[in-house]
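quick one before i forget lol
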Amino acid sequence: MKVNQFKFQLTIRLVSLFLSLLLLAFAIAHDWGFSLMITLTIVSVFLTAAVIRYINSTNRELESFLAGLRFGDFQQTYRISHLGPSFEALEHALQTTVEKFKSLRSEKERLASHYRALVQHVPIPLFIVHTDGQVQILNHATRRTFNVADIAHIRELERFGAGFQRDVTQIQPGEHVLTHIELAGTVEYFIMVATQLSSGGRIQKLISLQNVQGELDATELATWQDLLRVTSHEILNSLAPVTSCAQTAKSLMDEVIEDGFDGPDLVENLHDIRASVDTVLRRSEGLTRFIQSYRQLSRLPPPKKRKIVLLDYFRRLESLVADELARKQLTLKFEIQPQSLTVMADEDMLDQALINLIRNASDALEEAEDGVIALHGYADGKQRTVIEVRDNGPGISSEVADRIFVPFFTTRQQGSGVGLALVRYCMLSHGGAASFNPNSPKGSIFRLVF
C-alpha cells in the first residue's frame, strides 16, 4: 500500500505535468490566446518543480540529518515512512542514528562532569600554564593552597614568592622540583611536577604540587631530638666522673691546707692546685647546666590538645607576666578577631611558647622608651588560627633572622639558644608553624600558625 502511495503521488504529478504540457502545445498550435498560453506555461513550470521537489524529498531529509550531525542538533524527527517500505527503513535508520548520537553525547557529558568533579576534589593542587602565560586553576585544592578564587596569568604568581614564579616558568615536562610558597607570613615547601598536554593543537603544561612541609618538619624535629638526646647523654656521662674527681681533689686540698703542712712552697703549690681544680669544677658544673638546659628540647611530650578560648587565655597569660613586665615598665596589650576565636592546642605548651616570646620581646625592649608588647589573635584566609607577638623594639637584622630558630643559636651573652627553638618545636608538634617577620616601622613580629 505504501509503495502504491508513493507511485500514486508521483504518477499524479507526472500525469498532471504531461497534461499541462500537452494543453500548452495545443494552445500554441491553435493559437488559443496569449493569456491562456501564459497560464499553461506557469502551471507546467509549477508542476515540474513539484515533481522534482517530491523526488528530492529523500535528499532533503539526508541533508537535514547531516546538518544536524554537523551542528550537534539531535532534536529533529524524520517522517518519511508513509512514502513506502524503503522510506520506512530509511526513516528508521535516520532515527536510530540520531538516538545513538544523542546517547553518546549524553554519556560524554556525564563522563566529563564526572571527571571534572573528580579533579575538583583531588587533594593535590593542579593548574595549567599555557604557552602565552595564561593560568587555569583546575580544583579546590589549588584555591585553598593559594587562598585565591582564580589566577589569570603567570605574573600573578609573584605574590607567592619570586622563586615560586621562577620555578613554574622554568620547570620542564617530566621534571620534579622542590619549591616553596610564601603566604600569610609562612613558608611551605612543595614538590612540583610538570606534565605536557596537547589540546586542540595547543601545548599546555599541567603542574601539580605535593605539600612536603609536614614531612620536612617532622624529619627535622626527629633529627634534632635524636642528636640532642645522644649528645646530652654522652656529654653527661663524660662529665660525671670529671665532676666527681674535681670535688674529691678540692676536698683533699682543703684538708691538706687546713692541716698546716710546713713549707711555704708546698702551701703555695697546694693553693695553685686547689685553684686549678676549682676551675675544673666550675667549668664542669657550668657545662652540666648547659647540657641540662638543652635536654628539654629532646623531651617534648606529645601535645594534649583541647579547645582554648583565646580571650580567656590571653587574660590569664597577662596575669602570669604582669609583675615581670611592670618591673621593666613595659605595656602588654592584646587584640582578638573575632572575640570568640578558639584554638586547639596544649595549654601548657602554649604557655611555654608565648612566655618565651614575651620574655624575648621584653629583653629587646630593655633600652626602649614606651615599650609595648602586643598579642594579636585572628583567623587567616585559610581559616587557620594565628597568634602574633609584636614589639616595638630595635628589631632583628636580616642576617640573624635566618638563624633565630636554630637550636643553640643566641645573640645574648647569657642566652642559651633554647627559647625560640623550643617555640618552633612546640608548633611543629601541633602540626603548625612558627615564623618571624620584621614589624613596621620597627620591632619584630613572631607568628604562630595553628
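fyi The mean pLDDT is 76.
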